[in-house]
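Incident log, structure service

09:12 report received: a user says their structure output differs between two submissions of the same chain.
09:20 pulled the input from the user's history:
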Amino acid sequence: MADDKFPGWHGTTIIGVRKGGRVVVAGDGQVSLGQTVIKGTARKVRRLSPGGRDVVCGFAGSTADAFTLLERLEKKLEAAPGQLARACVDLAKDWRTDKYLRNLEAMLIVTDGRELFVLTGAGDVLEPEHDIAAIGSGGNYALAAARALMETDLEAEAIARKAMAIAAEICVYTNGNLTVETIGA
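09:34 re-ran on a clean worker, output below:
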């Protein structure tokens, strides 16, 4: 929302960490409008179960747009059960080429416990390096913290929680009210 009269929504830090056969997706609960915190308990990490197969998604950006994308992803997963990469690529193609979808403003982190992807409206389906993906206002802070913590003996969930705590201390659009979902062995 680049309108000068409207200060714009800010908020959200989402991180995905894969370590030891597990993937953890954690997201904070803050939504801000300009310099005001509108909500501190938003839930931006969801578990989907298309066809009985669990997939965990975290989103940054417009909630309505993200929910639209999650519904589309669920349909793609039902059409290609167990093929997360294919479903993500199909969603990214639609997102990039469909007149309605291309106006959606959100980013997604998606995992089935084996694969981990970041999806963008630019048509990107990115498998992150170093087994960490992060998006949103505090994403870069959380990513840097998690990369440093990967060298420790901490498990994936502890890394995600500590990285989010560090991001919350640095980014004014991130808080410590976390939603955490774990998937994998």
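09:41 both user submissions now match this output. Likely a transient worker issue. Closing.
09:42 reviewer note: The first strand starts at residue 9 and ends at 11. Residues 12 and 55 are 20 Å apart (CA to CA).
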